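Recall the central idea of this unit: under ordinary conditions, the amino acid sequence of a chain determines the structure it adopts. In this exercise we apply that idea directly, starting from the sequence alone.
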Amino acid sequence: MKKIYALAAFVFLGIAANSQVFWTEGFGTGCNRGQLVGAYSGSNGAWTDGSTGTNDADANDFFVSATCGNTGAGNCADNCSFTSTTNRTLHVSNINISVPPFLSIVADTGASYFSGVSGGCAALGICANTHRRAQSPVINCTGKTNISASFIYLENGDAANDDAAFVYSADGGANWSTINPLAKTTGSCPNGQWTAITVTLPATANNNATVKIGFTWVNNDDQVGTDPSFAVDDINLTQAPTGITDYSTADLTVFSSGNGLIHINSNGLSYKTIGVYNMLGEETKFTTSDNVIQLADATSGIYFVTLDVNGVRVTRKLMLN
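Accordingly, the structure predicted from this sequence is:
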């Protein structure tokens, strides 16, 4: 039954293209510590750190590091200070807090936040009220419609008092709106469990060259709250195509000349070969040269060739004699 489902999936791909990823952010790798988000710049440009309200002297902030490491959806987060995890994330953590000889906390302890100390703000001047926003570079969505954002995240805190949200700007960061309040993630992981989510962007993102996305964090100073704070990674923006012809792939054809040879007529489209599969959905080993695929096993039968055409995945069916 599993193989039948796999085959059905390949047939469907021959009819309609998958969503096209056009923007991605992974925050890099490495066991660094203490890098504020405002100091991070990736392949898309620099992220920035904004204020959304009152921020005390010891307010938490957004960091980019592997002290909260990405281990994949459904898994427990790790800290590169104790494990080999080096997949960095964007997360909320404490800044340097020091009141000699009573208190000393090094910045960026992972997705762990400072919610205040008993009598701290009044007696010691240690105050934790936080209202921060991590903001992406400008995202050019010209020519893109039906846009959605997918990412993995983890979050705890204290109800709405200590809380994260996914936010959006249509005008390059001048104005922001919350488009998903982000539910607290559950699980038995002490450092948080990674959870996948997909959020549809507002229609104002369509064909818009000045889109920004971001994440907010707020917490009060009542000394109440549960780690983890908030962390996010593997952000992808996609547009959902209406069909294969929208990407001018209708004229792309494949055919066999025998002896395990499959020829691709791409009509000038840029493509790469993802895989070749038999009727049972099993992958067949192959090599490529120019527009020709050579199968390692030339057994006759029906095959499905899956290609990436300008970022769009399409599949063609052919008979191999």
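The longest helix spans residues 2-13.
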